[in-house]
Amino acid sequence: MQHGQVRPAVERDLPAIAALEAHTFPGLSYPYFTLRQLFDVHGRHMLVAADAGGLYGYVLLAGDGNGRSWLLALAVDRAHRQQGHGRRLLDAVLDLADDDREPCAVRVSVAPDNHPALRLYQAAGFRLAEQYRDYFGPGQDRLVMVREAHRRIQ
């Protein structure tokens, strides 16, 4: 299996990220202007998976400055799923978080019936922290999972 490259997002990636976001999370996707501002503020922690055919995945991590970060998005195009791309994106952004001067616990919200995502996050060291009804509005229940900060040995 040929793997594309995981690399930092650049401004010209934003239209493709917005399209992937809209396709992956219909009704709950970030609009372009929000992705633009998230890129401006948290671009260091926005990574993409791409090959010669284009961008097919992205991940975004945002820190709150108080020892806690949120994994705001992890999306892989349907045609590229089940090939390890989501895990590669997740591992790459968690490595960035672990390398930060002040390592942070990382949180993510997941739909309770999204079993592939739950398995991915559990395999990466996340554990269930809380359950919320209507987290993103009526009928949008979520599980909040957390991965404690990993400190690098210097």
Automatic annotation (TrEMBL):
Protein name: N-acetyltransferase
Keyword Hydrolase listed: no
GO molecular function term, any single one: acyltransferase activity
Keyword Transmembrane helix: no
The protein's Enzyme Commission number: 2.3.1.-
SUPFAM superfamilies, per the entry: Acyl-CoA N-acyltransferases (Nat)
UniProt domain N-acetyltransferase: residue ranges: 4-150
Enzyme class at the top of the EC tree: transferase
Alphabetized UniProt keyword annotations: Acyltransferase, Transferase
Natural source organism: Streptomyces kurssanovii
